[in-house]
Amino acid sequence: xxxxxxxxLALTLIGVAATSAIGVVTYTNTRHQLLSAVERSLNDAAQxxxxxxxxxxxxxxxxxxxxxxxxxxxGADRPRSFEQVLVQTLDAKGAIxxxxxxxxxxxxxxxxxxxxxxxxxxxxxxxAAVDGEPFRMLTMKFRDGAVQLARSVQENNTTLDRxxxxxxxxxxxxxxxSMLLGWFIALTVTRxxxxxxxxxxxxxxx
Length: 206
Description:
alpha+beta; 17% strand; 206 residues; five-stranded antiparallel beta sheet
């Protein structure tokens, strides 16, 4: 491998490695912050349900929960401070008592276990999909059954996808720029070395 090619490859690898490292750190930190925000909102909503178990529709926007089948009720609406959190209640057997107007949330075996648990602190967290949209869910013991709190993470995933795409684009651009820079530096260096070799050869010749 020629010296010129080695210089080009070295600069390209350094540029790609540095850009990739920055991208990975940015993606990881952003993902952690977004997930933490979702978990905090679920925790705050859960605390609101504990503090105000009869929480109704405080903002009168008509987005309260409904009984399966669509009949409206005036209780257990999602907390005012967390408009993005959906609320669904279960009885002790895990059957839906009240569901969001947008549609029922999925109920897993783990959720049913929480609903039937005798422990007042029983809870479970998991990811779920509702009509193809990803949600983060928190199910906790509530009265004689359980309450499910869910928040969509679609926006988070979209943000992370954009960061991933931007990182890939940046890596490609940096790789091309590094190759051009490496080619220019390698050309300059090798020309100087060739001149020195030529001068040394002339000096050494009798």
